[in-house]
């Protein structure tokens, strides 16, 4: 396995070097072409993609879902190529990729000296999202990240994050470090959209499905009474990004309790759902988001039999 991991890592580095000889905009255009080719001829995880779209948009036409699915392949190719290109960018290169991006809400939250939790998802380019924020704020930013299976690629990704002034805190480390950073008025970024282990999550509604959802952002906010913001980058037709953010109010929730954690987790998942509905093709539909569910809405259930074998 280590040999395969090394080969994958070398391919990662080689592609990164090759792409660096071309302007970033041309690299993005090539990714668009490649994404369409992969959709028609190399349908990786296409079944999972279509299953998830059918579950979440049961009333939309099959033609609409196929169009979104094709755009999803384009989206992930753009993200991968942009990440490969990151080694040869500086902070100005990242910032120039965002056409509009007002961080005033985040900067005002930092001034309150209470710490800040920013929730987001695997929407458009989540790595550019982290780099964009961290290079325009006066305090240290960190992100909670899952360790990649390929440790060589994982190490490279962490070095890229450090290059752009934010640090990955890998899942499973001592949470005391996270607590200390929030208490020091630092920024903690979290992606809240992947399937969560039932023992460490809250079951809340997401696209009318009662599904296990990461509750870490809600827990941190309630525990330390931090500012809480949902934010994301949205790619436009010119392959540039717009930065969007809004405050998640939880002033009505008094105290750290299981009930309040579930309520706030629900609010965050609703923010995520609204973001995805705005432009569905920019979300990462390829992952098994609906692996752990309690119930499913009747409209989707009537269209197909949802079971544990659906992702096989």
Structure description:
It contains twelve helices and ten strands. A hairpin with a 2-residue loop joins strand 6 and strand 7 (209-214). It is globular, with a radius of gyration of 19 Å. With 312 residues, the protein is an alpha/beta fold. The two termini are 23 Å apart. The strands form two sheets. A seven-stranded mixed beta sheet has the order 1-9-8-2-5-3-4, sandwiched between helices. A three-stranded antiparallel beta sheet has the order 6-7-10. The protein has a single domain, classed as Glycerol-3-phosphate (1)-acyltransferase (3-Layer(aba) Sandwich), CATH 3.40.1130.
The number of domains is 1
Tell me, what is the CATH class?
A: Alpha Beta
Query: For the CA atoms, what is the radius of gyration?
Result: 19 Å
Terminal CA distance: 23 Å
User: Poorly predicted ranges (pLDDT <50, ≥5 residues)?
Assistant: none
- The number of helices is 12
Mean pLDDT: 91
Biggest sheet: strands, sense, closure?
7 strands, mixed
What name is given to the CATH topology? Glycerol-3-phosphate (1)-acyltransferase
Topology:
Layout: H1 2-19, H2 24-41, H3 46-56, H4 62-85, H5 91-95, E1 98-101, H6 104-111, E2 116-120, H7 126-134, E3 141-145, H8 151-163, E4 166-170, H9 176-183, E5 187-191, E6 201-206, E7 209-214, H10 216-224, E8 227-235, E9 241-247, H11 258-278, E10 293-296, H12 298-303
Parallel strand pairs: 1-9, 2-5, 2-8, 3-4, 3-5
Antiparallel strand pairs: 6-7, 7-10, 8-9
Helix pairs in contact: 1-4, 2-4, 3-4, 10-11
């Amino acid at each position: 396995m280590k040999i395969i991991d090394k080969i994958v890592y070398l391919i990662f580095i080689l592609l990164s070097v090759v792409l660096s000889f071309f302007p970033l905009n041309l690299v993005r255009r090539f990714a668009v072409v490649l994404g369409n080719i992969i959709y028609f001829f190399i349908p990786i995880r296409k079944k999972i993609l279509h299953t998830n779209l059918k579950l979440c948009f049961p009333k939309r036409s099959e033609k609409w879902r196929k169009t979104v699915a094709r755009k999803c392949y384009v989206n992930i190719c753009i993200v991968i190529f942009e990440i490969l290109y990151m080694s040869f960018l500086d902070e100005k290169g990242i910032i120039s990729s965002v056409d509009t991006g007002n961080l005033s809400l985040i900067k005002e939250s930092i001034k309150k000296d209470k710490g800040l939790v920013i929730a987001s998802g695997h929407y458009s380019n989540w790595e550019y999202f982290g780099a964009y924020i961290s290079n325009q704020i006066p305090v240290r930013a960190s992100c909670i990240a899952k360790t990649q299976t390929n440790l060589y690629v994982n190490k490279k990704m962490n070095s890229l994050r450090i290059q752009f002034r934010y640090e990955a805190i890998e899942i499973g480390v001592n949470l005391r470090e996270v607590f200390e950073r929030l208490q020091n008025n630092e920024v903690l970024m979290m992606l809240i959209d992947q399937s969560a282990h039932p023992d460490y999550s809250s079951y809340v509604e997401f696209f009318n499905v009662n599904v296990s959802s990461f509750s870490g952002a809600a827990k941190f906010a309630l525990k330390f009474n931090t500012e809480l913001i949902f934010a994301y980058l949205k790619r436009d037709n010119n392959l540039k990004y717009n930065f969007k953010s809004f405050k998640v109010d939880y002033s009505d929730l008094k105290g750290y309790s299981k009930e309040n954690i579930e309520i706030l987790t629900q609010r965050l998942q609703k923010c995520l759902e609204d973001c995805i509905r705005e432009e569905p093709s920019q979300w990462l539909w390829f992952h098994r988001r609906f692996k752990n569910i309690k119930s499913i809405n009747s409209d989707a259930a009537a269209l197909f039999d949802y079971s544990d074998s659906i992702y096989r």
